[in-house]
Structures are given as C-alpha cells and as structure tokens.
Structure prediction request, 156 residues.
Amino acid sequence: MKKLLVLGVGNILMMDEGTGVHAIREFWKEKDKFDETLVDFIDGGTFTQDIFYLFEEYEQVLVLDIVRAGHEPGTIYSLDEDDLVHNKNQALSLHDIDLLDSLNMAEMRGHKPKLKVIGIEPAKIDWGTKMTPVIVKAFPSFIKVAGKQIEKLLAS
Prediction:
C-alpha cells in the first residue's frame, strides 16, 4: 500500500473546471522530487465513483479540484472529510463527484484512506480550454499550497 494518492479532478474543456487536472499535469513535470514508492499523481478527469477502488491502495488521498463556496474567485481552500460531512452543500465541482460515497465504498471493501481536498474557487465555468485570468494568476499559489500539503502528508 502506498502512502498517498494525489488525484486531480475536473473537465479541461470547461475553463476553470479543469484546474485540478492542470495541477496534476504540473506535478507530473516535477514528480522526480517525490519518492515514487510513496506517492502517485493521477489525472482523475471527471472522476466518478467508478474509480473508488483506487482509494483502497492508499493510506491517504489528496484531491485537487475546484470548490464553489461563494468566495472570491481564486480563493484557495483546504478541506478534510469532516468539512465535507458537516457541509453537504459544499459543491466540489459541477460533475458527479461524491468523494464521501467513494470513501464509504472503499471502506466496505476493507480500507478507507484519509481524505484531504485542496480546492480553488472558480471564476467561470463554460466551454473553453483555458483557465480564466484570475485563476491563471492564482494557480501558482494553488500549486504551492498543494505541494506543501503533499510534503506534509508524506512526512506524517
């Protein structure tokens, strides 16, 4: 069992909705900095519950995605499973992402990893392959926060 799965989620054809996938692609460029026996970086695309079985292989899962919580676009969030349980109105993205159900399915099969989400408030979700200028500007900070979280999770 590996220590950490970093899962980038989103639709790169829907502007800011693809931010999590763009983040994973950035980490792929730097994955030599990380011990590949401890961590995997996966593009989850428009993740559905169909890949819950991946969760069984890791102690922890870090999801990179957009979070629509009504704050200024570019706001970065750090959430854990309790945050999601206590705020069921928290919308992680437009697509059918139900991390809690996926975690529960993995638990029913014998192993439930700890969950952490690093998210960013989107500015616009519409057809287009480029992130909006506000998200492009905030993207280096998003990567930095995610990178620090990866280091923290690998050290724990």
About this structure: The chain has a mean pLDDT of 88. The beta strands are 2-9, 39-45, 58-66, 76-80, 114-120. Helices lie at 19-29, 81-86, 99-108, 133-155. The domain at 2-155 is CATH 3.40.50.1450 (Rossmann fold).
